[in-house]
Write a structure and sequence with these properties.
The structure is a homotrimer of 397-residue chains. The first copy, chain A, has 15 helices and 9 strands. Chain A has 397 residues and is of the alpha/beta class. Chain A has 2 domains: 3-165 and 365-391, 3-Layer(aba) Sandwich (Rossmann fold), CATH 3.40.50; 169-362, Rossmann fold (3-Layer(aba) Sandwich). In chain A, the strands form 2 sheets. Chain A has a 5-stranded parallel β-sheet with strand order 7-6-5-8-9. The two termini of chain A are 15 Å apart.
Chain lengths: 397, 397, 397
């Protein structure tokens, strides 16, 4: 194997200052620039090794546990793929099957399932103010168990989407940008339009747009966040993005027009979400199990959404972008007009043109996750990556 | 380890001309005689190595993904066993848990779950005209993703039962015949009765009898297909079997009497199925979700089935077979009169006499599946099997 | 690695006379004292190796199959952890997904799922007279298949909780006692109070208290079994415990007061269960699917339970124990007053004081299970444990 292909990535990793070992990975903006770069570097290395047929096995045994409190295909398989690639066995905590529904405390569960675990992947994005909090409680409980000698090791929590951030998605998105534009440095001065788009459904989480503005604002890009009036995101996240943008020498604007956002954009990310204040009301109604209230809210929201059917990413709007050739991004599945719904987030033609690009974007997610697992579980990740390269064990042998 | 025991099988494999690498395995009659022989040879080798305690591990990591659109115990565990034996991790796509139910296209899903997969096992046998089609779409989508650099490797689709064929079952059946009669050559001139049998249930798939006539007709056997009038199979499959029978120098007949089929038979395979035209109507009714129509059809069918309760494989009919000692076969679970139902496919005494034989028949399925995975995923399977033998790593070490 | 730390455990194992290879593990009182010691010795060794970061992988491939006929978080993850640590892949038989619900016999299923399995873990604790019987039938069916050459190997059944015993729990409890008091020998003369406690729920299995008295009575302890009148256990198990107690030179008493049991106790195990005769009636009602009858029984039971709300383990009662410092034990999750319910088995303060102790108690269960798998699946476990130690492969490498 031509090890020379991989050496620069290992070298880069060696230069980065990291404090990730035995820690959770919950919000990208809690991690330093070096740490973000490390995630991308290891993910790229793992992607390239995998493409070359080389095994990424880093563990002889160990469990990767996933907790999904919402439906998922992509993220579920990304996590399963990442865990398997590293040599971990997968175990899902299905809360319907378990006794958690019967009043167990998070603290107890966190310890009970983790005796032989390396990583806990959690998706919990349904209720505002809940998902990220749950992950922190879970991590704190494991930390407590570890410090008291109950757990032999401290598994890391990986946020597979919460109410605040969707870090593995945003990092896969960033990897797609890096590879499309050549480097993170090349992103400086590029305009990215993170915009709301119409969808005939309701209650989509805010974490994708929040994750995107929370991460892309760190690389000197000009971030244009666009949504119809009333469709705002969590204010604290927007503030964080603004602050980062200023620090990184980029710009940050909020506009109420998809067209304005698309104008001269290098990248567009049209994606539906529910308004912040609706998610707040929904969380309350769900907590009190107020079914008529939920029904009413849904009706109201869908009616309101319907006022903005023109927020569709179509060929006309794409012409407004830089040379009419902006990179279209989506976390998938997109609501494609005339394909998955009558009227949706993106026209059939635009989607079809960028279909393979969105697949490539998604293809990085398993490697982002395996990278995060490696960086939070290995004491000297650079040395271990060097080992993987030198060993060069073929996956099929 | 006495490697000499395994050498002839590796040698046989070496002589066969194969074009299976990176391909799907969907219908036995799409594969050449050499390829069918290769499946049996590798399955036998793996069976023998497993019996000797030798590890069949061929992959360091990698996912085997199963998609079950119908209930299954045997096939589910056969696939899980085969995947595990080769070193692959198992991941099930549960369509109720995933977002597929919400309108994702097959094309997208096929790529999204396959980034780190080696094989996709699919069972989809409920609707005529659907299952096999779905598998081809799935395979084509992965091929497309692979050719466009989205997938680093092209996983193979293995048909775990569709509307047309049940190849892993038919191949396990063939292996049972080969081992019972000594060789594939010895099957020439043997009479096999693939006959309908009474069952108090309704809507059983056609793929088992179709798989059996579609495979056994290739080895010079005299195939007698028997069913009550109106219980025909898919006409194209019957035509294929007739054609193969003529080419192989065997005979093919359709009779409307279990007794006629059993007469002088060397092998009998009494198994219930729903008439082709009923499955067609059922598929339409299911598509339009016509519940009263389905209820009516079920009533009608059960009433019609009940006219043929004498289509039971009992001791009296077994006496008609060659020396009264034909090999009884079944894919299990059988509807055993007085055991699993009041009146069914086979009498208690006949089943009990052949119970262990049906278990042995079933025992080949995991190895047939691991064989197909190896043959579709390894570039030089003979060299790799040689390696397994020489390495002789014990499973428990 | 300091191998000297592990050598004494391997040496101890070598001195024990065992007949566990290829056998099931169903009731602790069916195993000799040496065999019980072996389970604890290997579990301790595996616990210590795991803590030192050493891989416990004993199998290259192979399946560990679990069958859960009742909800479970702890035991499910303990089994998954144990299987993974030994290198086995996990496969769950979900009886809702499978065809078992459609009338398959145990005999058939046992063979069909076991072709490549090493161990079958079964939890079946809902119906009196059923769970343990089912496990024996399952084991006998595999034995039959193995003797007739259907199965290449004889997987072992591990009882993950039945109607009679909960051996992996009781053995984890015993390990906690051994480590708390220094040795099994030190348990001689210690008083253990296995007492009923109030819970606002109904129908809790008897297998935990039965497992505890069935095991702890063998080590010269003074066992005090306490429950309100009418809350007796299976008489045969109580007889077994009495007999063992006499043989081991301990005492065994039944009292109807939590206070009496706690008096001077070194260990207390307050845990709710349903009365034996209620479980018998419940089993009949469930068998006949008598819903009004079940409703009535539940009402009756909860009303009866409510008479004994003072059977709570609180600080007052803990003062009655030896120096007020008895070890509190629970299999978790406990019904904690003011935390998981209004009034329950244990007061908040008492539980909080012993919370970490109960976590430690639970932490042994995965290693007890991996120990039992190793002892029932390896011909020379001492040699293999020696190998694990000498090899010293790190889990993360």
């Amino acid at each position: 194997m031509a090890q020379t292909q991989f050496a620069p990535l290992v070298e880069t990793l060696r230069t980065l200052k990291l404090d990730m070992f035995n820690r959770d990975f919950l919000l990208t903006w809690e991690r330093t620039d070096d740490e973000i770069k490390a995630v991308l570097t290891v993910a790229q290395l793992m992607n390239d090794l995998h493409k070359a047929g080389v095994s990424l096995r880093t563990f002889d045994t160990g469990l990767a546990i996933s907790i999904f409190r919402d439906n998922s295909t992509r993220t579920r398989f990304s996590f399963a793929s990442a865990a398997n690639a590293l040599g971990l066995g997968l175990s899902e905590l299905d809360e319907e099957k378990s006794q958690i529904a019967h009043g167990e405390t998070v603290r107890e569960t966190a310890n009970m399932i983790s005796f032989l675990a390396e990583v806990i992947g959690i998706r919990d994005d349904m209720f505002l103010g809940e998902g990220n909090k749950y992950m922190r409680e879970f991590g704190a409980a494991m930390q407590d168990g570890y410090e008291h000698g109950i757990l032999h090791q401290r598994p890391s929590v990986v946020n597979l989407q919460c109410d605040v951030d969707h870090p593995t998605q945003a990092l896969a998105d960033l990897m797609q940008l890096k590879n499309t534009f050549g480097s993170l440095e090349n992103l400086r001065g590029k305009k990215i339009a993170m915009t709301w788009a119409y969808s005939p459904s309701y209650g989509k989480p805010l974490s994708v747009p929040q994750g995107v503005i929370g991460l892309m604002s760190r690389f000197g890009m000009n971030v244009s966040l666009a949504y119809p009036e009333g469709y705002g995101l969590i204010p604290e996240v927007v503030e964080q993005a603004k602050k980062q943008s200023a620090q990184a020498g980029g710009t940050f604007e909020i506009v109420n027009s998809m067209e304005d956002a698309f104008k001269d954009a290098d990248i567009v990310y049209p994606k539906s979400w529910a308004p912040f204040h609706v998610m707040q009301r929904r969380t309350e109604l769900l907590n009190t199990n107020d079914k008529p209230g939920l029904k009413e809210l849904e009706k109201e929201c869908l009616a309101n959404n319907a006022k903005f059917k023109n927020w569709e990413c179509d060929e006309e709007k794409m012409k407004l972008t830089k040379k009419g050739e902006a990179l279209y991004m989506h976390c998938l599945p997109a609501d494609i007009s005339g394909v998955s719904c009558e009227e949706g987030e993106v026209s059939k033609n635009v989607f079809e043109k960028y279909r393979l690009a969105t697949y490539a974007e998604a293809s990085y997610k398993p490697f982002v996750i395996s990278s995060i697992i490696a960086l939070t579980r290995l004491q000297d990740p650079a040395a271990r990556m060097q080992q993987l390269v030198e060993r060069g064990v073929l996956r099929s042998r």
